[in-house]
């Protein structure tokens, strides 16, 4: 069956609003972060991140990206700009087909090579991820930029798992668990934050983004494991006019409009 949306062509981002009207909203994501315009709010305090009991049970190639699903009831994201407790639901990445592109958010107009999204849902106000998905304050997405550099041992296990989900709809059980905190940068105190949306359809305006200032480094070989993922099923072939590989799966930046981006740090 033909996908309802894509990252290029007649079902690309410019056309998402035809089937998903929220994509035309006023608080869409991603955005360009102009660092000199960010409002410093040191009173936000530190984030509390507890993935110690995270049960990441499955990795899936959904035809747009890889996604690792989490089922633990004990993970927690709170503090900082968040007024509620949030639980990890899944994480995924966006990346480019070549160096210098791939992140969804940009910093002063600059793209990183990839962007990691840890998606959490509000357990104080909602009963399930599905309930939270379309409501204000429903989701919090912890975001890390990824750049090509030295090999990152924290990403070794993820890279090995990617080799098991090469094609669309491939899935694999994660037998011995996975610690998502291994994927994050060391500096977790410095971040930007703003209110936005899902960056993929249906583009619900339900997300508080928390974007780490410090990028994560991974090697060229490690990012190749992302670029080698395929957009079609094992028994099939790429859709006409669409690329063979899963790459450039990032939405262009959207207008900030009247929103304010705050920073937890003073720019030096």
Automatic annotation (TrEMBL):
Q: Which residues cross the membrane?
A: none
The superkingdom listed in its UniProt entry is: Eukaryota
Entry-linked SUPFAM superfamilies:
Carbonic anhydrase
- Keyword Zinc belongs to the record: yes
- Keyword annotations: Glycoprotein, Lyase, Metal-binding, Zinc
Q: One Pfam family for this entry, by name?
A: Carb_anhydrase
Catalytic function, reaction form: hydrogencarbonate + H(+) = CO2 + H2O
Domain named Alpha-carbonic anhydrase: which ranges?
A: 3-265
**Chain spans, region Disordered:** 234-254
EC number of the protein: 4.2.1.1
> What does the entry list under GO cellular component?
cytoplasm
Name the cofactor(s) required for activity, per the record: Zn(2+)
Q: Does the keyword Iron apply?
A: no
Any idea which GO molecular function terms this record carries? carbonate dehydratase activity; zinc ion binding
Q: Which SMART domains match?
A: Carb_anhydrase (SM01057)
Q: InterPro entries, alphabetically?
A: CA_dom, CA_dom_sf, Carbonic_anhydrase_a-class, Carbonic_anhydrase_a-class_CS
UniProt similarity note: Belongs to the alpha-carbonic anhydrase family.
According to its UniProt entry, the function of this protein is described as:
Reversible hydration of carbon dioxide.
- The molecule here is called Carbonic anhydrase
